[in-house]
Amino acid sequence: MTTVAPTTVAPTTVAGTTIAAAAAPPLDHVDAGSECAAHDAEIVGRNVLFGLWAGRRLGLGGEALELYAWAVHLADRAAPGHDDMIAKVARDLAARGRALDDRRLRDALHDMRLRARLDLARLDLAGLGLTRCAPAGVAAALAGPCAGHA
Q: What is the residue-wise DSSP string for 40-98?
């Protein structure tokens, strides 16, 4: 598999969040040997898509939109569950006068999870090094969470 080096960008502030030396992870950042590699890739996809969705509502574009999407993904790592990510997006939208209620944000996050699943199903997972989940394991991985991620 070809490894793509992460892209590093100068520190910036996007929607009130300072991102110091933000770096998009390399394409092979998911542990190819992991039993839950497909699930992990789905979570990353969901989070980044949710960040792009929210960033567009904030009026961001280009590099600022991409940085914001990764900042939303990183916010999901603050605590178990995705409430920390929902709270970040809610604060950012409210700060720009574009507040959305909790139900709308959760619906959007759910929609992004479905989209991430569909995107993964379309990919050649074996070509990404996710051979332990493809092809027989793909259906099972897309059907529900892996043990340990429930």
A: HHHHHHHHHHHHHHHHHHTT--HHHHHHHHHHHHHHTTSSSSSHHHHHHHHHHHHHTT-
Tell me whether the omega of the peptide bond preceding residue 135 falls within 30 degrees of 0, making it cis.
yes
The answer to pTM > 0.85 is no
Q: How high is the pLDDT of residue 2?
A: 40
> What is the distance between the alpha carbons of residues 122 and 19, in angstroms, rounded to a whole number?
32
The residues facing 18 across adjacent strands are 13
The C-alpha atoms of residue 87 and residue 102 are separated, in whole angstroms, by 9
pLDDT tens for each residue of 27-57? 444 444 454 777 788 899 999 999 999 999 9
Those residues whose C-beta lies under 8 Å from the C-beta of residue 7, and which sit 6 or more positions away, are 23, 24
- Using CA atoms, how far apart are residues 6 and 99, in angstroms rounded to an integer? 33
Contact of 96 with 15, CB cutoff 8 Å:
yes
> Between 40 and 16, whose confidence is greater?
40
